[in-house]
Amino acid sequence: MLIQKKGPSKDDRFAEQVYRWRVEYNHGNKDLPKGSYIVDTLSGDNQQYVTETPGKDFAPVQIWVDGGAWLERDKDYVVEYIGNNQMKISFPNGLDKPVNIEYFTKIPFVIDDSNSNTQLKNGVKTDSGVEHSAGGGIQNNGMQKKSDVDYENRKISWSIDVNIYQYEMANWELKDTMSEGLTFIKDSLEIQEANGPKLVLGTDYELVSSDDRNFHVRFKEPRSVSTNKSYTISYQTDFDYRRNDLTNTATSYWKGKDGKDHKQSASNKPEIGVNFINDATKGGSYNAVSKQITWTIKANYNLEKLKNATIVDTIPKEQEYIKDSAHVYEATISKDGTINRGAEVKTPINLEGNKLTAELPEGSKKAYILEFKTSLEGTHISKGTYDNTATYKTDSHSTDVSSSVTVPNGGEIVNK
């Protein structure tokens, strides 16, 4: 192929919105004459060539032999910009090897919610009339919102990065709206300038308003007059543990250097672990030597105050409960949601028929683990998978949790 264009690809080595393009030229290994050239054309007025790269260890236009050495500008090739949207690259000595040409374009305007769907297109044409084009959308990530769920301390930490591309901003303010199930912790609010100081409430910014699910902050002078810094707004919320529809949206408002009013939004929806939504989980493991299944039920992940709390497990008829195998343990929750077994708790455990019931300590705010064993010895294993369901119940809610255990050698009578 004589010529092919690839891109755009956002280049994070630049602070602003810059995209990298590549042209593969003469990959058919032709012997191109002296003075051969290509002309690159930008479509529309939504991008400009990067003509200088001060402070960078790479040039605005770079050319190298495919798999080989770099070409020298103004010796092996010459770059000429034609108007605002064309670039001509000539090869005064001709070309007899395949080369790769890399260059950059920048977005010359503020990217906000009004133009986040902007498309970039770029075409290239050889002196012989062969042409190719490429294109793609810009990244609307000048504002980002993130969340981190802390299950141990029952909080969600939020961060909002604003003005990542360091636009000139005046009259900046931000409004944050939280969904039902989130509760704003006012005293946790902080604003940090990137590579700069932590801002002081009342001096550097003001909290215009706030309630359980909203807040509104605004810069004070001198930042309200002008700033081109990036900032991170951080805070915490309490959250409803049994919901997985928690969303949080922040909107940033400012007046740009272009004199226009701008708005940009960012949202985040943390994924709450299913164990916390259900407030319980169940697992099982099979020991092929003893022919026993160990069942484990973990409950009260949300550390709520227990009232009339029980774990009830109905043991299937093909399994035999092993006497005195049931034990209840206290458990702790790690930040990442892992549950860890602690000391054994002496609490009533009863077996009536095939129904095993463990009563959990009244008024406790701890998580608990019930473990017990069943045996398959002497039974005919007609299936390879054994299921078991338990019910965790309190005065406020009830949930069923199930687990399956795979047992090898289905269809055989199991004996020790």
How do the helices and strands line up, and which of them pair or pack?
Elements lengths: L2 E8 L7 E8 L10 E7 L5 E2 L11 E5 L12 E5 L3 E6 L7 E8 L12 E8 L4 E7 L6 E7 L4 E8 L6 E10 L3 E12 L11 E7 L2 E6 L11 E9 L8 E9 L4 E8 L5 H5 L1 E8 L4 E8 L10 E5 L5 E2 L5 E7 L5 E7 L3 E4 L2 E5 L7 E9 L9 E9 L4 E9 L10
Antiparallel strand pairs: 1-2, 2-8, 3-7, 3-9, 4-8, 5-8, 6-7, 9-10, 11-12, 12-17, 13-16, 13-18, 14-17, 15-16, 18-19, 20-21, 21-28, 22-27, 22-29, 23-28, 24-25, 24-28, 26-27, 29-30
Q: Can you tag this structure with a few keywords?
A:
single chain; 416 residues; mainly beta; six-stranded antiparallel sheet; five-stranded antiparallel sheet; 30 strands
Quick structural summary:
With 416 residues, the protein is mainly β.
Largest sheet: 6 strands, antiparallel
Mean pLDDT: 94
Helix content: under 10%
Q: What is the beta-strand fraction?
A: over 45%
Number of strands: 30
Overview of the structural elements:
The protein starts with a strand and ends in a 10-residue tail after the last strand. The protein contains one helix and 30 strands. Strands 20, 21, 23, 24, 25 and 28 form a six-stranded antiparallel sheet that branches. The protein is mainly beta and 416 residues long. The longest helix is centred in the middle third of the chain and has 5 residues, at 274-278. It is elongated and about 95 Å long. The protein has one helix at residues 274-278; strands spanning 3-10, 18-25, 36-42, 48-49, 61-65, 78-82, 86-91, 99-106, 119-126, 131-137, 144-150, 155-162, 169-178, 182-193, 205-211, 214-219, 231-239, 248-256, 261-268, 280-287, 292-299, 310-314, 320-321, 327-333, 339-345, 349-352, 355-359, 367-375, 385-393, 398-406. Helices cover 1% and strands 51% of the residues. Strand 26 (349-352) and strand 27 form a beta hairpin.
